[in-house]
TrEMBL record:
<dbReference type="InterPro" id="IPR003593">
    <property type="entry name" value="AAA+_ATPase"/>
</dbReference>
<dbReference type="InterPro" id="IPR011006">
    <property type="entry name" value="CheY-like_superfamily"/>
</dbReference>
<feature type="domain" description="Response regulatory">
    <location>
        <begin position="1"/>
        <end position="119"/>
    </location>
</feature>
<keyword id="KW-0067">ATP-binding</keyword>
<keyword id="KW-0597">Phosphoprotein</keyword>
<dbReference type="GO" id="GO:0006355">
    <property type="term" value="P:regulation of DNA-templated transcription"/>
</dbReference>
<dbReference type="InterPro" id="IPR002197">
    <property type="entry name" value="HTH_Fis"/>
</dbReference>
<dbReference type="InterPro" id="IPR001789">
    <property type="entry name" value="Sig_transdc_resp-reg_receiver"/>
</dbReference>
<feature type="domain" description="Sigma-54 factor interaction">
    <location>
        <begin position="143"/>
        <end position="372"/>
    </location>
</feature>
<feature type="modified residue" description="4-aspartylphosphate">
    <location>
        <position position="50"/>
    </location>
</feature>
<dbReference type="InterPro" id="IPR009057">
    <property type="entry name" value="Homeodomain-like_sf"/>
</dbReference>
<keyword id="KW-0805">Transcription regulation</keyword>
<dbReference type="InterPro" id="IPR058031">
    <property type="entry name" value="AAA_lid_NorR"/>
</dbReference>
<dbReference type="InterPro" id="IPR025662">
    <property type="entry name" value="Sigma_54_int_dom_ATP-bd_1"/>
</dbReference>
<dbReference type="Pfam" id="PF25601">
    <property type="entry name" value="AAA_lid_14"/>
</dbReference>
<dbReference type="Pfam" id="PF00072">
    <property type="entry name" value="Response_reg"/>
</dbReference>
<dbReference type="InterPro" id="IPR027417">
    <property type="entry name" value="P-loop_NTPase"/>
</dbReference>
Amino acid sequence: MILIVDDDLAIRTSLALLLKKEGFSVRGAASPEDTIEILQRETPELILLDLNFSIETSGDEGMDLLQRIKKINAAIPVILITGWGTIDLAVKGMKEGARDFITKPWQNDYLLQSVKTILNLSKQIPQSANRRKLEQTYHFENIVGDDPKLLEILETIGRISATDAPVLVTGESGTGKELIAEAIHTNSKRKSKPFVKVNLGGISSTLFESELFGHVKGAFTDAKADRIGRFEMAHQGTIFLDEIGELDFSNQVKLLRVLQERTFEPLGSSKSIKVDVRIICATNRNLEEMVADGSFREDLFYRINLITVKLPALRERAGDIPVLAEFFVNNLKIIYQRPELKLSHQALKWLKTLTLQGNIRQLKNIVERTVLLSVDDMLDVEDFKKNINENSLSSAKSVLPEVGTLTLEEMEYQMIIRAMEFHQHKISKVARSLGITRFALYRRLEKFGISYESES
């Protein structure tokens, strides 16, 4: 049974008709007193709670009722309903334990999606993770490893894939956030529809609307033809918003409205476009700290993280390093037509001792570089040591090596590391000191698997 709490009979009736049409059993409550009386006799599967009662427009009565509900039974999921102008109330409610919030006027499809997703998640009981069992149920072919931390994550994303829940994937650079997002999409009911990737760190603030929402011809000087935005491309599929922490404050508001209302207007157009998309976001930044310091909107944070998946650094699952290295070598056998390529037992043990600040991406770079520069098909410890300067495996040393001891690529790597340390990872300052653009620096950081936190 779903309990609808609202003092407005028209709203209760409208929501009841919508939910009954979908096969749900529904009860209504017009006041906090009615709600408490029902809860003393029954346990709803979910509560839809309007925060604003006609006798009290501040939302205090609704917030007080939410707290009373949580004291009676904290396990009952609650979805809040509020006006866009009082969305701050919903954010406060999320801190008090609500699972999601809907703004008026609501979109029927989105409201039903939220209800079904939360009911689905609350019914599912996590099972002990086992790689073989997981692979019998889900498709995780591109995610390599057997570490318990990884298996727990795979079990989680397997369960949530069937829902339309927004997911926030966090973790250091190079830990495989995009692979996780792809796995969620591949195991979802949207798998036959588009999976659209957007690197928000690579889109300038002025191009944000055009890139994500599209534009019409003549919308600005260089708009010589209509352009479809990424959200429209992802219709009925999944949109993956990588580096969500890099989005500036003004564009955070625009994104929030689209995530909330599922409608937008292309730049230069007054025509609204409605989209059905699942949202997966990723970041290597600490969004909670950004919320605290005011650089990331709290309402957007709660909108994107109904489910949070935190990926461990590779050093936290070092046992997977040999498995990953062999996986990369097996792929490189085909790419470089060297079917006899192998890693020695000693090389696998040595690789396992590396800290690898750039995580999986850095390991892949190290393996591929060694394959390219080694004549023998049996790769040993010396092959890696000969081709990879050990200073580059941790932090750069204060003194550069003698001319001729490093390749130009290795020198570039070390210079970037030194500049990052000197300028305390301030991307703009690092880029200026190296004489390149911020986006050129980002490409090099990705290429070398160097961890970084872009400036806000």
